[in-house]
Amino acid sequence: MTTPVLTTHLLTKRYGTQSALTEATLDIPAGRIVGLVGPNGAGKSTLLALAAGLVRPTSGTIEVLGRRPAADAAQLARVGFVAQDTPVYAGLSVADHLTLGEKLNPHWDKQLARQRVEQVGLDPKKKAGRLSGGQKAQLALTLAAAKRPELLVFDEPVAALDPLARRAFLQNLMEFVADMDVSVILSSHLLGDVERVCDHLVVLAESRVQVAGDIDDLTGAHHRVVGPRGTLDALPEGVDVIAADHTDRQTTLIVHNTTGRPLDLPGAETVGLEDMVLTYLHRAEGIGVPTLQETRS
């Protein structure tokens, strides 16, 4: 049986009295490209920092690839982590970064690193501080991938990139995943990017996990149901109401069908990824069913 890439149980991280992550329980299979989505302050960066071993939990447990994060040098080598703003050393050249990567990582793939630099058109002699945002992101991706890790972790890697650079970065990421047989956790607030490259989803809001699972399973199990007021008060067991909106004549529900069977309700239609995610975010903020205009804004 394949070891899950990330397992947490009631994982909590507090900074003083402020809770950055609260009782997160997750079980993410290996081999997935995981989209970690939610608003600013939801706990995305905290969860990724915990997974990378940069911070310790306040309570609860976390395992990455079956072991405690950053337990030793061998465990560190299994994870490639790229923090926000794709940090590189401004005073070092591209070639210097590759040399440093080779010295620090026992499984460094020198050929892969050189091929990647050539493929994306990076000048080995150029200082990192003089690279564009897209070039810095490509350099950071190269450094993380050339470690030959089992898990790549990216914290908002494309947030500051223009659309062309973002597209190139995500395309290269998908190529890496196909070639390297690696799992990926990617945090983003850009749902279009998540829908394009990810096959597993974790939604965070108000420091808590709202929903998690394979994207096809989740979107197939979430429905919008519309009916006359009073006709949707009693739902089948295993059909959970995520959000509700009532007018004098009509009720609109977003429901999660956890039964594993087709939803037998008149007028039920599946919702897309964006509508589903926004519904959970609205619920976390105490807002009802998002309107069509809201889900498209």
Strand order, sheet with most strands:
5-6-7-3-8-9
In CATH terms, the superfamily of the largest domain is P-loop containing nucleotide triphosphate hydrolases
Query: Which strand-content bin applies to the residues?
Result: 25-35%
Class per helix and strand makeup:
alpha/beta
Could you estimate the helical fraction of the residues in percent? 25-40%
How far apart are the termini?
43 Å
Which value, in Å, is the CA radius of gyration? Answer: 21 Å
The largest sheet is: 6 strands, mixed
Question: What is the typical, i.e. mean, pLDDT?
Answer: 90
Domain ABC transporter: 6-231
InterPro entries: AAA+_ATPase, ABC_transporter-like_ATP-bd, ABC_Transporter_VariousFunc, P-loop_NTPase
GO molecular function: ATP binding; ATP hydrolysis activity
Keywords: ATP-binding, Nucleotide-binding, Transport
